[in-house]
Amino acid sequence: MKILILNGSPHRSGCTMSLIDSFVKGAREAGHAIERYDCAMLKIHGCTACEHCGNGLHPCVFNDDMTEILQHLQTCDMVVFATPVYYYGPTAQIKAALDRFYSIDNWLREHPKKAALLTVAGDADEKVFAGVLGTYEGNLQYLHWQDCGRITAAGCLTVEDLRKTSYQEDAYQLGRQL
Ligand SMILES: Cc1cc2nc3c(=O)[nH]c(=O)nc-3n(C[C@H](O)[C@H](O)[C@H](O)COP(=O)(O)O)c2cc1C
């Protein structure tokens, strides 16, 4: 499979990146190809609802880094959404990329894909993931995509916290068992 990873963390060696690295290790061992985009390090303009795209009739008016991501989105078999929890939701950087799915919305809904979620939060209470899970689950239902698994790494404010847990191993196994 070709797997597209959208990373919403601006932290180059943080918890989200560690989960991604573990997932990628497992997925590569299982023979999958990976394309990873670090949304926070890219130029991705927010959707302005100009409706020029007509949900797929015309290219988005913003010809930025999302143009390349949209191309991979159309050729990949699976999308992995990876984000820390910021104020009870996904980061603005990954949400900006997600909102730009709008320019190929009709196409995406007619081409089912697999998906997975890697998310991390400082709070140890799993309820902290409600916003991220709501976004993920709502979109899978809307797009008709299939969930292949989620890692919700609670209580991980730092990578030191993460290393004391099994979440990296869980992410590795998720990739390995696809
Ligand atoms: C702007 C910001 C908002 C955050 N909001 C929350 C939050 O609402 N709940 C929570 O548990 N942790 C919150 N955190 C903590 C991060 O989710 C946590 O530190 C995570 O490990 C960061 O992932 P990273 O290492 O990939 O950057 C926040 C961190 C930042 C910088």
Protein described:
This protein is an alpha/beta fold and 178 residues long. It has a single domain (2-176), classed as Rossmann fold (3-Layer(aba) Sandwich). 38% of the residues lie in helices and 19% in strands. Strands 2-1-3-4-5 form a five-stranded parallel beta sheet, with helices on both faces. Strand 1 (2-7), helix 1 and strand 2 form a beta-alpha-beta unit. Helix 1 (15-29) packs parallel to helix 7. The mean pLDDT is 98.
Offer a concise description of the structure.
This protein is an alpha/beta fold and 178 residues long. It is 38% helix and 19% strand. The chain has helices at 15-29, 66-75, 92-99, 105-110, 130-143, 159-163, 167-176; strands at 2-7, 33-38, 78-84, 114-120, 146-153.
> Which residues form runs of ≥5 with pLDDT under 50?
none
DSSP summary: helix tally: 7
What's the arrangement of strands in the largest beta sheet? 2-1-3-4-5
Write the element-wise H/E pattern from the N-terminal end onward: EHEHEHHEHEHH
Oligomer: single chain
For the record, the CATH class is Alpha Beta
The total strand number stands at 5
